[in-house]
């Protein structure tokens, strides 16, 4: 059996002691799960889902606490203290996560939060953080298609918009003139693949593009008008921010849906807004 440092492992309880239980770590020997983390009623022979990391003395130790990130993941973490070797970030466990100065793009400051990647240092076998995000983004071939929904972490604001980390692996870009909601660095959300560019880079959008989005919102808009007495004051002259606050879509999507409903002769347009065609 091979354990994975910095990740969740399912291990068997092999011994009970006054200060906790020991788990079978295979070739790595018995691993302590301290009393404070032992589930009530736990017995020898039980299998527990635990997270493995190193304690202050660099010994393997188990916990049932949930870290804010595992090895191989990116996260937005706060610096809780700094010393002459580097910064220490809170990641949900008793022991803070170390980010040495060499892995910082700018000197980290206490109380500030940073996007970092969690990894095991090959030389020291310690779990560390790195703010040098680009180094840990995958260069593997991806198989995304336009319109596919993905989980993203907002990583960096640029002149073009926001860079995002897709599924903990790839980099993508949200263009600022296509963002119609408040977003910020460190935010986790869902997005859609807009296109794969010729240079292999990924463009993202927060609302699904193409006819699927228009068809879906057209039905939403029609129901909205019905629920408001057959009339709405929103029209193609309404402000984009007002449209987004009311419907959660861009003005472009709103206008496409209006056009779709108009072509189907379901609505009428006038200076006062939009009203239903009475059958």
Question: Describe it for me?
Answer:
The protein is mostly beta strands and 279 residues long. It has four domains: 8-63, OB fold (Dihydrolipoamide Acetyltransferase, E2P), CATH 2.40.50; 74-135, Nucleic acid-binding proteins (OB fold (Dihydrolipoamide Acetyltransferase, E2P), Beta Barrel); 149-205, Beta Barrel (OB fold (Dihydrolipoamide Acetyltransferase, E2P)), CATH 2.40.50; 210-276, Orthogonal Bundle (Arc Repressor Mutant, subunit A), CATH 1.10.10.10. The protein has helices at 210-227, 240-247, 251-263; strands spanning 8-17, 20-24, 30-34, 47-54, 60-63, 74-82, 86-90, 97-100, 113-120, 127-130, 149-157, 161-166, 170-175, 188-196, 202-205, 231-232, 267-270, 273-276. The longest helix has 18 residues, at 210-227. It is elongated and about 80 Å long.
Could you give the topology of this structure?
Elements: E1 8-17, E2 20-24, E3 30-34, E4 47-54, E5 60-63, E6 74-82, E7 86-90, E8 97-100, E9 113-120, E10 127-130, E11 149-157, E12 161-166, E13 170-175, E14 188-196, E15 202-205, H1 210-227, E16 231-232, H2 240-247, H3 251-263, E17 267-270, E18 273-276
Parallel strand pairs: 13-15
Antiparallel strand pairs: 1-2, 1-4, 2-3, 4-5, 6-7, 6-9, 7-8, 9-10, 11-12, 11-14, 12-13, 14-15, 16-18, 17-18
Helix pairs in contact: 1-3
């Amino acid at each position: 059996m091979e354990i994975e440092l910095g990740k969740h492992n399912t291990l068997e309880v092999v011994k009970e002691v006054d200060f906790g239980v020991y788990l079978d770590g295979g070739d790595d020997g018995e691993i302590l799960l301290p009393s404070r983390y032992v589930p009530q009623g736990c017995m020898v022979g039980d299998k527990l889902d635990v997270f493995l990391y190193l304690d202050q003395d660099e010994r393997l130790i188990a916990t049932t606490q949930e870290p804010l990130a595992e090895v191989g993941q990116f996260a937005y973490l706060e610096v809780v203290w700094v010393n002459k070797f580097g910064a220490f970030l809170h990641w949900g466990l008793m022991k803070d996560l170390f980010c040495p100065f060499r892995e910082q793009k700018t000197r980290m400051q206490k109380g500030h939060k940073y996007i970092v990647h969690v990894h095991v240092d090959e030389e020291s076998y310690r779990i560390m953080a790195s703010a040098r995000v680009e180094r840990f983004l995958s260069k593997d071939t991806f198989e995304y298609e336009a319109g596919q929904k993905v989980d993203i972490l907002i990583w960096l604001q640029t002149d073009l918009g926001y860079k995002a980390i897709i599924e903990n692996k790839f980099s993508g870009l949200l263009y600022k003139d296509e963002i119609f909601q408040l977003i910020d660095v460190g935010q986790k959300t869902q997005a859609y693949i807009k296109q794969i560019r010729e240079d292999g880079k990924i463009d993202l959008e927060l609302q699904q593009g193409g006819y699927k989005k228009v068809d879906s919102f057209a039905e939403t808009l029609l129901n909205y008008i019905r629920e408001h007495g057959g009339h709405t004051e929103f029209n193609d002259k309404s402000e984009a921010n007002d449209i987004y606050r009311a419907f959660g879509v861009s003005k472009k999507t709103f206008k496409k849906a209006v056009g779709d409903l108009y072509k189907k002769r379901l609505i009428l347009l006038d200076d006062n807004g939009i009203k239903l065609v009475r059958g």
